[in-house]
């Protein structure tokens, strides 16, 4: 409710705490998201939101800029159309990159919102990761690539066909081995310095 949000904004302002719109659903689905960002901005609060980009169009992008959004992060999985589709179960990779471009265009030459992109990978090659960075790196202020961790995933709650479910169940072991090798390599490289 507006009363609850106003209470939160006053508490954040009193303590100099930023306000983040993340988790438990897509923030851009809320009909008052730009109003709430504008209200928080009017109190001098830094504001951030995470988005999958599915509800971001030109109008919403302009509204977010005008509202005073400080930063936003686009959430991906994978580094190409195939890996995104495998992890998100939707063929929307290219459209998401276009959507980021829409946000960049709406921001124009302003410093804010700071635009970040974060993705996680499973078994993608270094070449595929590099190609992704080349393709999207110029669009955003910050780009991070991490590893998908399946330990917390309830596979019975995910819409997968039998072949995909079988593939996903073997990834954690492969991922753990790959991550351990990467950490060992990184550690030995740092200790040699």
From TrEMBL:
Transmembrane segments: none annotated. GO terms for molecular function: catalytic activity; iron-sulfur cluster binding; metal ion binding. The keyword Membrane does not apply. Residues 11-128 form the Radical SAM core domain. Gene3D superfamilies: Aldolase class I. Keywords: Iron, Iron-sulfur, Metal-binding, S-adenosyl-L-methionine. PANTHER family: PQQA PEPTIDE CYCLASE, RADICAL SAM DOMAIN PROTEIN. This is Radical SAM core domain-containing protein. It comes from marine sediment metagenome.
